[in-house]
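dumping this here so i dont lose it
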């Protein structure tokens, strides 16, 4: 059993990542924290609460976090995720409220209470994670593993140089990458191969009640690539936790550009560092066939449970 805490900005692919968690009995979800990103904090939190109930995630605590970046103006992705943040998916309104505490406190307290046991997963801007590291630097020791969907060592999607999660809060990402732990970075380099092609979408259709989330969400996810179908970026972070062998990861030094006029948010990745030890494991390939087999098996299990 692997315990995970997920910091996210749901967001269509965040939702599909949480569905992967819900369909994976080997994962024990210790908490969900939310951050502003794809849509504002009120919406990411409302979506996390709705997903907790729709995905039958039980009494997992959900805590709201940062409403904006440390320094930068708001960056949102409403064109990609829709005004609701879940595209055309229309989930029942949540009944249970968020926990009263702040996300940063939930992250610090959860990791402190189970040192080395919990994998911290971030699938949104890293503002909450940076604040947690600032509030309690020992979180880098307490986290069993730290896995993010974010960054790129090739092309960006928010700008030519930067991936959205990093570009939304470069200062936070810089704090996080320099905190002293090893960041497992699932960047666009691999996540852009995890495409919801038509055959994949067709395998989501017969999953009963779960398909009322998966199909409209994936169908309206406005990041259709040239190869066809949107990429479910965030599910790659959860897939790594479930089976790291799906990926090839290479040690590297990653530095986040915070001053560049055209390169702000760029994850400058050095695979042959000469001046410092690696601070990241950077994913360079994904076995896409095995990825979809695992994801769709999990969705099928979850679909049976929800019906
Ligand atoms: O660049 C993709 C990332 O940005 C994903 O986490 C998506 O949800 C958006 O937040
Ligand atoms: Ca996200």
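and the seq i came up w/
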């Amino acid at each position: 059993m692997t315990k995970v805490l997920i910091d996210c900005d749901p967001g269509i692919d965040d939702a599909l990542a949480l569905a992967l968690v819900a369909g994976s009995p080997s994962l024990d979800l210790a908490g969900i924290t939310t951050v502003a990103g794809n849509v504002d904090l009120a919406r990411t939190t409302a979506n996390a609460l709705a997903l907790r109930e729709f995905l039958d995630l039980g009494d997992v605590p959900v805590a709201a976090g940062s409403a904006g970046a440390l320094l930068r103006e708001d960056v949102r992705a409403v064109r990609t995720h829709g005004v609701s943040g879940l595209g055309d998916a229309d989930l029942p309104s949540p009944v249970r409220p968020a926990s009263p505490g702040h996300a940063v406190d939930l992250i610090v307290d959860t990791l402190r209470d189970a040192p080395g046991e919990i994998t911290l997963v971030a699938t949104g801007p890293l503002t909450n994670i940076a604040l947690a590291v600032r509030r309690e630097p020992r979180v880098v020791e307490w986290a069993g593993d730290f896995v993010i969907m974010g960054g790129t060592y090739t092309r960006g999607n928010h700008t030519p140089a930067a991936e959205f999660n990093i570009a939304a809060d470069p200062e936070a990402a810089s704090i996080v990458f320099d905190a002293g732990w090893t960041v497992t970075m699932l960047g666009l380099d691999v996540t852009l191969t995890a495409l919801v092609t038509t055959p994949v979408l067709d395998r989501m259709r017969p999953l009963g009640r779960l398909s009322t989330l998966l199909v409209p969400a994936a169908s309206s996810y406005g990041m259709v690539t040239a190869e066809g179908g949107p990429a479910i970026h965030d599910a790659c972070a959860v897939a790594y936790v479930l089976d790291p062998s799906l990926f090839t990861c290479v040690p590297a030094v990653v530095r986040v550009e915070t001053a560049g006029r055209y390169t702000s948010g760029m994850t400058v990745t050095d695979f042959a560092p000469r001046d410092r030890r690696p601070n990241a494991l950077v994913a360079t390939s994904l076995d896409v066939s095995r990825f979809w087999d695992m994801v769709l098996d999990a969705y099928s299990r979850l679909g049976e449970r929800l019906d």
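The beta strands are 2-8, 27-34, 62-64, 118-122, 143-149, 183-186, 247-256, 267-270, 280-286.
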